[in-house]
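Troubleshooting entry. Yesterday's outputs looked truncated, so today I'm pasting the complete records for two proteins to confirm everything comes through intact. If either block looks cut off, that's the bug. Protein one:
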Amino acid sequence: QSAVNVPRDFEGCSTLRKYFGQLHYLQSRIPMGAEQEAAVPIAWTEIFSGKTVTHEDIKYEQACILYNLGALHSMLGAMDKRVSEECAAGAFTYLRDHFPHSYSVDMSHQILNLNINLMLGQAQECLLEKSMLDNRKSFLVARISAQVVDYYKEACRALENSETASLLGKIQKDWKKLVQMKIYYFAAVAHLHMGKQAEEQQKFGERVIYFQSALDKLNEAIKLAKGQPETVQEALRFTMDVIGGKYNSAKKDNDFIYHEAVPALDTLQSVKGAPLVKALPVNPTDPAVTGPDIFAKLVPMAAHEASSLYSEEKAKLLRDVMAKIEAKNEVLDQFMDSMQLDPETVDNLDMYSHIPPILMEKCAALSVRPDTVKNLVQSMQVLSGVFTDVEASLKEIRDLLEEDEAQEQKLQELLGKGPPPQGSPPPPSAGLAEVSKECSKYMEVHEKASFTNTELHKAMNLHIGNLRLLSGPLEQVRAALPSPTLTEDDKQVLQNLKRILVKVQEMRDQRMSLEQQLREMIQKDDITTSLVTTDRSEMKKLFEEQLKKYDQIKVYLEQNLAAQENILKALTDANVKYAAVRKALAEVEHKWNTTVQTLVASYEAYEDLMKKSQEGKDFYTDLEGKAAKLLEKARAACQAAEANRQQILEKEMKKHPPPRPTAPKPALQKKPPELEALGPEAGDLPQLGSLGLA
């Protein structure tokens, strides 16, 4: 009576659970199922049609209680604050999976699927709202919202079923319209947050297309929302303000600032839903929920003891089978590990048919910067020009110093002081000494920088060809990537190997499936009811008969295990033929990866090259200014030193004049050998003596 007139609160849920559990205990002892001795008529009213439905089956009573438990949970969930992601789907799921669907139309598979997905969808909505309030990461929020869409799509499919439509009548159209509106709305929320994630990752083209898609889906939701309450309309208007503002801002920024290509939405990875809500579990034998078993005394202890013995027989059977399976699995795992064959990558021919995404990204980036190579070449040319100017200035300074040193040495020899010791030049003047010191310092700096400059030019020459390639047509980039050349025989070898690897995986999957079926059969195998009415002397015979139900699945497992030897032998033969092809493919893949990495490295080196080129230009511009000043200083110092040497020569000529001529017509005097070496300036000195200045 309490379960039939249940209060609309959580105490009512507890009452329904307890009643459901006690019904489970009762039906396992008393034959109250369909067409059994103690079956009684049970009547309930269908929720949609209002008709009274009667069945003589205790399971119908359990099914109706479960339905009401799910319905009551959904009512309480609608009244509660939207902070809990636990949901009413558990009762409907248990009802769908453990009871017949023929009791009444409101318990049909489609109606239960509809209820389950409506409950899960609304629970996921609660979690979505909580995640947004907690400022969770955009990608996570997008996945949670995408899962809301998935749940409502499943619900919509159930609503579109003809049986569901005829049962629900007019409300089917209203529900379908509301569910479709929610599908579009939460798809818009998902793409809004995917756009926010693209914004965080600075993928401005993706941001635009996600916001645009969110806007399109929201417009569809608004169309479907006609006739909905004002609260819904207000929420849609608010969402339109948010998404519309985001889209307009993103499009404007991309058009005027970033200029990124806007990809097509179908080229982007779809948002995979994250099912994070959980259905409240239903366990009819949980004493914490159902309370003590009020029919516990109805099963004799002998039946319990016999049930335990039967459980041990089942466990022994499972241990024997699992020992064989584990032994074969160990052999298979060791064999596959030694082969190092991955069915997904045994031939990687597909990767050669397209440009990898990372390279496409670099090509796209360069396509909006067409002057990349030109700027780099110009920068390096400017650097080379400044470098050459500095080198010319320093060479001129060095030449001036060497010339001055040579003139000074000749002067010393003329004056009779003799040549300086080997490798010891005459001491320069203070000005020239300072120039020489500074010149040496600049030469040292220049030589060190020259090495860096050379390395920079080498790096530029290494990368500039790759940058030109990345800036060019995609066909050229694709042509530059290595690709394997396989003969028809090679392709046949590959296909044969892949076929056998598929067989290996099918064998694994079948083995796991059979093992799972066996475990489920053993778990569900409860013969307590039979044991209660079986004579003790007949127990062993009953066990043998009951265990025969496992013979068929054991045969399938034996066949699966026996096939392993033949499959592995075929795989060994195929692998031997595959060895040469594998080596060739590995070499091409290595070259392909190296080429891709080299091209990516060239793209990533561009900014560094530009930066270092600018630094080099700044450095040499500064050094050029200093060298130019030093050159002027060197010229001035050399002129001063030359003037000083002229004065010394004039004094020497006054002290030691040349001999007077005795012939009436004297011949022209030649320069003394010592003066010959001093150049044309010293050649004028004898004329001073002819004027009587001696």
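Protein two, checking that the full record survives here as well:
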Amino acid sequence: MATGAAIHAVPCSAGRPKRRQQRRGSASLSVRASTDANTVTLLDYGAGNVRSVRNAIRHLGFDIRDVRSPEDILAADRLVFPGVGAFGSAMDVLNSTGMADALREYIRRDRPFLGICLGLQLLFDSSEEHGPVSGLGVIPGVVRRFDSSQGLIVPHIGWNALEVTKDTQLLQGADGHHVYFVHSYHALPSDANRDWISSICNYGGSFISSISMGNIQAVQFHPEKSGATGLSILKNFLSPNSSGAKVPARRKASKLAKRVIACLDVRSNDNGDLVVTKGDQYDVRDNTSSKEVRNLGKPVDLASQYYIDGADEVSFLNITGFRDFPLGDLPMLEVLRCASEKVFVPLTVGGGIRDFKDANGRYYSSLEVASEYFRSGADKISIGSDAVFAAEAFLQTGVKTGKSSLEQISKVYGNQAVVVSIDPRRVYVKSPDDVPFKTVKVSSKGPSGEEYAWYQCTVSGGRDSRPIGAYELAKAVEELGAGEILLNCIDCDGQGCGFDIDLVKMVSDAVTIPVIASSGAGAVEHFSEVFEKTNASAALAAGIFHRKEVPILAVKEHLIDAGVEVRV
């Protein structure tokens, strides 16, 4: 509570926009608002990566006051609520702490409020997520899951187009721009809530992408991860009387964009310095007498440059993480913290996310490891070897134990926060009947004229092969809670001959979650090829960006010329 805050009744203003009657109990909560023009109150209830929102607010020149009690909400001059995770879990925390009633009262007073992602959904009557679960009841409507039964990829992940339907200060200049979404549930427009809607977005039909009524604003997308457009939107809320940040003119966005992702393989070199490297079929050492680890630059510097160059996401892969205790890898955590202060697009980190015991015998769950990555600035975590073992166990028993890292993390943070990285190697066979795994008829025959191949999965950075195919693994991890698949190919890695189209098509056709094509990009044409011939949602590259052989902008320009929707 602010020093000297007085308790008193606050009547509704006569000119305030009409709102729904609030639930009982909220009217008794009342304190005076604070008046620090440079301070924003942030409601962080402890789930997911709120560091990104903090960094964006500070980047725009504002200080942050954290909510510690319901009174802190009512004392706020401006309140930002970046909801992350599951609807029911969030409401449990808000109800048990008394903050739900404080939020209702704050909104009833028409105080400046910005909800982000789940912070928008919680304003509605209820959600079907693990429910029905009652929400704050401010806006009429039910939050429902996207319907994947007709082939729609769920979660809705990526940069989609805003269609502004109401003139508001918040969205000034944002109409027709791509902003970043990552969610499986959405609120639908209706006659009962149409006066609230300020923009819509299309994904398998129209859904509410933002609301506005008086001083109450909320967005389904993540402005803190939406580049210059998102920062401009945040600036419009934080400084409503300013002109906001300049958003460059561009082609008008029309639909969900294909993503171009820059990947940074990070490891310690022989001197102990953390560097970005790149393998040749997963071998990161130079083909010289020194056999040193290839050093292609410093992680934070490269990530920052890729953000400026137009990368839609940046992915850090700690490629020796499977060997060591990741929470002891303080330099990697510091890389995340520093990168998240400069990079305002999504950050993914992978490597070594599994259960551990440290040198003192202290046990750390994979959930604790992932939580530290999230707190350090990651938006998504990528699981590799541990997901393979979990999938093998699931396929053998048909039982979801809830104990695997994949299941634990997706339950707490949502499946949209969990990527599974698949590292397969092509195995040629003469007939599909030769193996019990899904095969494809390959575009190029094998060394002995074989017309078919299956893709054998590996663990430990490609060192150990496992008795499971990429197709089977992808289907299993989707069932276990993965929200996205990063599909590598050891055969194509570092070759510059293009993505393995046969592999990407097989997996992207088999699952209803987004697939990121990886390994093999060597020219701009390889990106258009994978988007035109497969259902991949994104394409990732590393070496061609690090060595400046192909600029990210050149990829985007080529995709535009090829008729592929991208964010520019």
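Both blocks look complete. Sanity check on protein two: The mean pLDDT is 87.
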